[in-house]
Hints:
Elements: H1 10-15, H2 19-26, H3 38-59, H4 67-80, H5 88-100, E1 111-120, E2 131-133, E3 143-152, E4 158-165, H6 176-188, E5 194-201, E6 206-207, E7 211-214, H7 215-234, E8 263-265, E9 271-273, H8 284-315, E10 318-320, E11 323-333, H9 335-341, H10 343-352, H11 377-386, E12 389-399
Helix pairs in contact: 3-4, 3-5, 4-5, 6-7, 10-11
Amino acid sequence: MKLKYGPYSPSRLERGICHYALHKFYGGEERYKEPEGLAQARGSAAHEVFEEITGRLIKDPDYIFKKEELRGFVTEAVRRHPPAYDEIPLLMEMAMGYVNKPSPILTSTAELELRIAVKVDPSSEKGKPKFIECSYSDENALARGRADIFMVSEDTTEAIIIDHKTQPNIEEADTFQMGFYAWVISKTHPFLERISTILHFSRFNYYSKPFVWDREALSRIEDEIITRVSIIEGRTDTSEATPNKLCQYCPFLSECPVMGEFVEEDQDGRIHVKKDGLKVMGDTQKAVKIAGLIEVLDNVKKVATKELKAHVKTTGPIAIPGVMYEFRPKSGIDWTEVNKSHRKEVYAIFEKHKLDPRAFMSFNQTISKSIWTIGNEAIVKELSDVLPRQTKTEFRGYKS
């Protein structure tokens, strides 16, 4: 069975939320070749380093790694993934962390970077399809994926998948991605009764608790996979665009039928809001689109700010035309300390000027910032002299 957008992987099914982007990436005669960005390069390089380390530990669990050897692994991996050059210190840190705390389960028969794929059995009758193993490169494959570390128990009833993650957040091992991999393996290894998945978060040298995919759970994930594939394959309008969390990475943003209505790309490749692009007065349909756009951009801004903040904290300010992103000191009143240690002094000033302190208390009986609304400059000056101040650093974009 020839699929329009297959073979499917977890990431391709995620991309499938937006039919326009999916068609741009995978539907043309020549499929779009996305350049490797920093995050992808970092992940690829880290996986190659972990594979080198794991391979040696499978052969010799007591293998002692030298720092120079690890640096060689990292250097070679970065050579193949140049965008990760600036990440060498982080990659070294993750490599050393993995050496000090390798996979909690590692058998002598463990397979590394296992490539697996399945396709619909041509002999399937009407109704629920049957699946058979096929080559990873088979153009008729329905689903395919990779297992970083794959092990089968001696009694062949259980398998374990360990997946390396370089992301800056921790999650449980019951993700759709891991369910997808477990399902594909259940079809290529039909004798298995259950498959456990474990996530290795290399930034934190942390392993998640195993999540067990039994036959019931695998049946549910199969239904979800087939449903997603059916919806995607059944679409016919290639201009149908759906804003989602992947918009922030989409190279077709400025020409998107939805986002393109609001933004445009200048000659330097920067995205700007179009003139009148966001005006919606009286246009309910456009207002609904913009509401969806806000939801996407809020998520984009949250993630992007977190990543930019971490980068600036490590490497220093980042400048773009007209704006400097950096940490700057910001002085203000330490209101926690005011209520903890300076209440008597503040009350004394109130009493001296015959003011009722209760007029400047919040509902939880703490001194409120509303004291600055007092119209008497002399009182404000006295309060300012006794209130403790603190200096914090604030990260944001400052006009330059």
